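So, does this match?
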Amino acid sequence: MTADESAFSAASSSSFASGEASITEGDPVGGTGKVQTDIARLVQQGLVDLERRKRSLELEIEKLERRRDRIDAEMKTTFAGASQDLAMRVQGFKEYLVGSLQDLAAAAEQLEMLPPEPAPRTERPGRPHPTAPETSSEPTATVDFAQSRFQRQSNRIQSLLDQYRLRPDYYGPVWQFRRTFEPIHSERISNWFFNQGGRGAVKTLSSRLQNVLVASAAVSILYTLYGDRLRVLMLANTPERLGEWRRGFQDCLGVSRGDFGTGRGITLFESAEPLAQRAERLLAENLLPLILIDESEGKISLSLLQFPLWLAFAPDPANPTADAYEYY
C-alpha cells in the first residue's frame, strides 16, 4: 500500500468515526422529546379523568343535598302534625280548667240554703187514697225526661253531663262522648232533656261543630241509657253538610264508617219523608229513633214531630253559622 492510500484510509476512518460520534450524540436529544410528549399526553389524560370524576362527585353532592332537603321537609311535617295534636289536647285541658274555676266561683257566689221540705199532706178520713197506675216493666219507645218523673234516670243524665264537663275522657269507648264540654253545651242539652222532655229545638251555637258537640252528647247519654236500641237519624239538606256531621260524630263519639248506614247506629238523610218512614219502621221493631235536624232546614216536616225523640237546631238570624269551618 502506498503512502497516499494509507492517508486516504486513515482519513475515511476518521470521518466515519466522527459521523458515528455525531449520530451518537444526537440520539439523546430525540429520546428526550419523545418522553416529554408522552408525559404531556399522560398529564392531559389525567386532567380529563379528574374533570370527569369532579363532575360525577358534584352530581352526587346535588343528589344528597336534595335528599337532605326532602328529609328535613318530612321531619318538619311529621313534627308539625304531632305538635298540632299535642296543642289540641293542651288547649282542651286549659279550657276545662278555666271553665271549672269559673263555675266554681259562680256557684260559691250564688250559694243558698235549701228551702225547708213541705209538710206531708194528711188525708181526710173516709176518702179513698188514689193509687198510682201500674207501669209495665217491658221497654217501650216512649221516653220522658221531665224532673217530676223517672228521677233515677234524671240523676243518671245529670251525672253524665257533669262527667263530660269536669272529667272528659278523650280515649273512651265507642259511643262515649270524648271531647271538651263547655258550660254552654251542658246548658243546651240539660234544657232539652229536662225542660223539653227530649223533644224540641235548641238555639244554634256559633258553628256547626258546636252543634255537633251538643248532639253527640245527647247521643252518648241515650246510648248509655238504652244501648243498641238507639238509632240516630240525621237530617241535613246537602251531602256536604251531612259529611260534616258524619266527621263530627266520628270525632266526638269514636264511631267508624261501619256505624253509618241503614240498619246501623247512624243513618243520614237529605229529605224528611224517607226519614219519617224509617223512624216508623224502627218504632215497629221496638227500637228508639233519635231525629237530629240541622239548622239549614228552614222548615220542619210535621211528620217528624210525632216521634218521641227529636232535636232540632234553630238558626240564629243575628249570628248565622258559616258552612265552612276547620275541625280541631
The mean pLDDT is 76. The helical segments are 3-109, 151-166, 183-195, 208-226, 239-253, 272-284. Residues 161 and 186 are 6 Å apart (CA to CA).
